[in-house]
Structure of Negative transcriptional regulator, PaiB family:
Amino acid sequence: MLTANLNKETDWNKIEAFMREFSFALVVDTDENNVPQATHLPLVLKQKPDGQYVLQGHLAKANPQWHYFGKQDTLVIFSAPHAYISSSWYEKERIPTWNYMAVHVHGKTRILTDEELHQNLDELVTHYEAASKCPVTIADIDEKSYANNFKAIVGFEIEVRDINANYKLSANKKDKDYFNVIANLQEKGDENSVRIAAEMQCRRPQTEQ
C-alpha cells in the first residue's frame, strides 16, 4: 500500500485500537500459481508472553486458502471509515479525493493446534458476545454440534511483523480547507463521514481565532 509520509500512522496504541475495533479483516494469500486468494474473517489480536503480537482466527476447512499458509507472507487488511471529499469544499483547488483509514499487516502464518483453536474460539465468542443482552459462551453449545463444527474449521495464527498504517485525512491541506472539509463531513451526517470528521478534528484541533 503506497503511503505518503504525511499520512503514515506510527503510534502503535492507535494502530492496535484500530485493529481491535475493525477486526473483521481481509486475509490474503497467494496460491501455487501466485493467484491471490482472500477471505473476510473476524480476527483476535493477542500479545504473546515474549511480547510478539499475533492475529488469530479460523476458516472453513473446505476453503483451500489454508493450504497456502506459511508458504509466503500473509497480508491482512483492516479498513472501515472512508468518505468522499468534494473539491467544492476547498477554497481554490478543484481536485476531489477520498479520505480513509487502513492498516495492512504482513507476517508468516501457522496452523493452530486443537488446544489453541479451542482457546481462540472461546476468546472470539466471549469478545463478540460481550455486547449482547444475553451473552452465550462456548459452554452453551451442545457437545455434538461443537464437535461437528470444530472438525470443519482450521485455526491459524499470523505474526504481526510489518505494519503499514495509512491515515489519509487531508493532512496536506491548509487550515481553511481542512476545517471546511470537517464541517461538510459533519453536515453530511452519515456514519463514515462523521467518523472521518472526528478523526480529523482530533489530529488538528481548531483553535479560536
